[in-house]
Amino acid sequence: MNFFKRAIRSVTRQKSKSMILFAVIFILGNILAGSVIIQQSTQNVEKTTKEQMGAIATVGIDWSDTKRQKEMESMTSADYSALDEKMIQKIADSPYVKNYDYSEQTGFESKLLKTYDPAADKKSEDKENSSNEANGGFINTYIPVRGVQDPKIMDIALGKIKLAEGSVFTADDIAKGANVVLISKKFAEKNGLHVGDEMTLDQSTQGLGNTDNAESKPENVKTYDTKVKVVGIYDVLEAVQKKSGQSGKASNGSVVHAAAFPGGSGQEAFDFDNYNTIYMPNKAVHNMDQGFRQMVMTDYPDTMAGMSEEDAEAAYKPYYIPIFQLKSVDDLEKFKADTKPLLPKFFSVMASTDEFNNIAGQFNKLSKIAKAVIIAAVLLSIVLILLVILLFMRDRKRELGIYLSLGDKKSNVILQIMIEVLTVAIVALVISLITGKFLGSFASEAFLNSDSGQVIDNMMGGSVMNSSAMFNTGVTFDAKTIADNYAVSFTPFYIVTYLLTGLGTVIISVLLSTLYIFKLKPKKILLG
User: Fold this and answer.
1) Going by C-beta distance under 8 Å and a sequence separation of 6 or more, which residues neighbour residue 104?
2) Where do the DSSP E strands lie in 282-426?
3) How far is it, in rounded angstroms, from Cα 275 to Cα 247?
């Protein structure tokens, strides 16, 4: 009888021993399967969330870097404007960059223009009494203005907004800094504007100089008016309108832009910016800001008191915020490493995914625990299965000695033991593959529920001091968003990984146990 038939008969005849071996492998298999599926689920949620965040990076001053706070106190205006167009284009030459643009940004509180508040609109749809006046706050009057250098407008090309009426800017508009704008459809409806209409951007001096006097005498408040022409009206795309955890249509191509304006927080601030941002050529934004600055210097000279000539000169230079869309989320770290040596002092690369580790603390803990359990389960499995096999082989010492004395090769005896163990192991591992999934789901749910009260807002109240505030997909990402993306489920990768790990563990245990067979001497066994 060959070794294969002997192995099968041994498994079926020695049922009690087979059941003991099955029980040991099944229990260990459940622990291993649960840990493997948790580990892979946490990796999947990280990948999914980061893809929703977008493969986006910018270069700027990271005010949230506590290690450099004291160093940044010595910054001058010249340091702020150190990132010029040549440097941005040099960075954009990176092989990881798919698309890029850079923007000079400003904003103003307007008395002439009405802002569209999506939060108030939603409340009215829900039949709740609400209005801009009721909600109040800086966010309801502050209009963001964002310059563009790419005539196609990056947000349109990458799916954040779409052109509804009119046209985008021409290359000539960008080069000359023409006073032309794109506004959202909701903003246009709020102000009764159409393509071809002229509108006034009224930058106010409210709050400058003696604020008490300004408040008591509104007639003293001046505005710097810039006449612009509406050449296009855009719609905010559905994927951007969706709330946290519902950005299924957003992918690596879903652009986010540098928009670090104060006021509001979280989702409402994002939504407000999405619908009220005015797009203009960079040069037009710069000219408008410089005109306002000149008026302030004339009418409020005290605001410039103590400013050095170097700072005054630097104030006239544009301050650009670049945005780089990379080819893949996986390229972000490589892009950071390649770009860092090129940057001026105080500047660093900030990615849309930087806040993931801050808001996914519980998932990172779960991943680390699962990884530790996998290692422990593998080592424990090797030891326990090895001991069980050795105990069984000691009871079968005479049987194995007879095989060897009859001229059977030691390799055949080893293969027989291997087949016996693997036959039982495969059955145990396949069953534990299913039960381990439910064990992993229960364990991860229990762990996450114990930490459910800790929901971290990655926007820190919308503060400009947070690096993540420079990115706006229209969707906030917090611990709840990541939890919504977390799912324990069967995947081909999980099945293959678990079975290979489990079978590999069993095979190692059998091979180690066969050292016992090599020590066997048939004559001594039979005589003994």
Assistant:
1) 147, 282, 285, 286, 289, 318, 319, 320, 321
2) 320-326, 347-351
3) 17
pLDDT at 328: 86
Q: Which amino acid, 5? A: K
Give pLDDT, residue 407: 76
Please give the single-letter amino acid code of residue 291: G
- Say if residues 320 and 50 touch (Cβ distance below 8 Å): no
Alpha-carbon span 298 to 48, nearest angstrom: 53
Residue 481: phi, psi to the nearest 5? -60, -45
Phi, then psi, of 254 in degrees rounded to 5: -75, 105
Q: What phi and psi values does residue 105 have, to the nearest 5 degrees?
A: -120, 150
By CB atoms closer than 10 A (0-12, 13-18, 19+), residue 394 is exposed
Q: What is the DSSP letter of 99?
A: E
**Residue stretches of the chain with pLDDT short of 50:** 128-139, 211, 213-216, 243-265, 452-470, 472-475
Question: Which residues have CB under 8 Å from 136's CB, separation 6+?
Answer: none
CA dihedral 74, 80, 86, 87 (to 10 degrees): 60
Listed in order, strand segments (DSSP E) in 270-311 are 278-281
Rg (CA), the chain: 33
Cα 144 to Cα 260: distance, rounded to the nearest angstrom: 9
DSSP letter assigned to residue 457: B
Residue type, 152: K
How confident is the model at residue 448, as a pLDDT? 66
Inter-axis angle of helices 15-53 and 361-395, nearest 10:
160
Predicted pLDDT at 207: 66
Helix (H, G, I), strand (E, B) or coil at 60: strand
Query: What three-state secondary structure class fits 478?
Result: strand
Rounded distance between C-alpha atoms, residue 196 and residue 191, angstroms: 14
The residues pairing with 320 across neighbouring beta strands, listed in sequence order, are 104
In angstroms, how far is CA 505 from the centroid of its own chain? 35
What pLDDT, on a 0 to 100 scale, did the predictor assign at position 148?
Answer: 94
Which residue is listed with tokens 């909600």?
A: 135
Report the C-alpha gap between 39 and 41 in whole angstroms: 6
**153 conformational bin, left if phi > 0, alpha if psi -120 to 50, beta if neither:** left
C-alpha distances in angstroms, 469 versus 257, 259, 454, 466? 10, 7, 21, 5
* H or E segment and range at residue 229: strand 223-236
Helices (H) and strands (E) in the chain, counts: 24, 10
Q: Residue 472: which residues within 8 A CB-CB, separation 6 or more?
A: 256, 257, 259, 270, 273, 274
Can you give the pLDDT at residue 96? 93
Residue with tokens 């977008």: 54
Per-residue pLDDT, 218: 59
